[in-house]
Amino acid sequence: MTNPPSQNPLRLNDLPGCNIVITSSSTKPPLLVVVGPTAVGKSGLALSLAAHSTGEIINADSRQVYRGMEIGTAAPTKVDRSGISHHLYGVVDPSDGFSLAQFIPLATQTIQVVHDAGRLPILVGGTGQYVNGLVQGWTTPRVPPNPTLRERLEALLASDGVESLASQLEEVDPTAAARVDLRNPRRVIRAIEVAEATGPTTNTSSRQTPPYNTFIIGLTTPSRADLHHRIDERVDKMVAGGWLTEVRSLLDQGYSADLPALSSMGYRELAQHLAGELALEEAVRLIKVAHHRLARHQYTWFKATDPRIHWLTIGDECVDNAEEAVRGWLGSSN
Fold first, then answer.
1. Beta-bridge partner residues of 138
2. Out of 18, 99, 292, 310, which could bridge 54 as a Cys pair, Cβ 3.0 to 4.6 Å?
3. What is the pTM of this model?
4. In this predicted structure, what is the pLDDT of residue 209?
């Protein structure tokens, strides 16, 4: 795990408050990544690691990019952000779309800015497509929306369900179908849109040499039951902390409940409650079920057998173990 020192280490401890020296033998710039399922504690661990390495945190969660959706996406609070620089949180209007093709150049530019400041970029999030796309050097075509095609696909979704869209994507672009969450109609529609415009992924979207010297920490729980308990507890706290008010505020501002941002889990159910279609208790139950399902899907991106990921089980020594692992990767000690 420990890399031998290079001839020209980047001495982050020359900066105020830093106690780690980057001495990786790799000529690639370092990138620390924290992944895992929802509610496992990724943001908290990232804060601790950033404090010990003069790091800056970069968001890799596809929902936390939206403004005005901090509670329901469990984005870091203003208090969390006050001591550590955070990037790519709340930067997109809920009425705008956001995809991998937009995330990669934004994240790449942000990582460069952090490196130029002599700090360690820490990528944090549970959106596997974003994390893998960035660290593996995927290139993605920038395809503008096709309203005519989207209207046709939306009609197909309404008549035949998301399974019909998934079948179409598997036919036109099997590689993209293997990457995309086939239960998420918005992502399936976007993937079909890109495939129709550019052809199959194998012809238009390639993996280049990974651009960073990456160390990935994965957080997990002792059992699935433990994770479900953490999810349920966090959903209850978010509801008690004003999530319903947040959804009402977005709707009052004129944002449609049909927008991709607001049709995501939790926002969809709470909007249905505000419309009188669901009792609050039932809405909360459905939100918890959706988050359980999300966690299962995230483990398909972040596999226990993935040799790139240094897995840690949450517990009393988790932060200490993570810090030790990072020090080993950086090839230095406090």
1. 207
2. 18
3. 0.81
4. 84
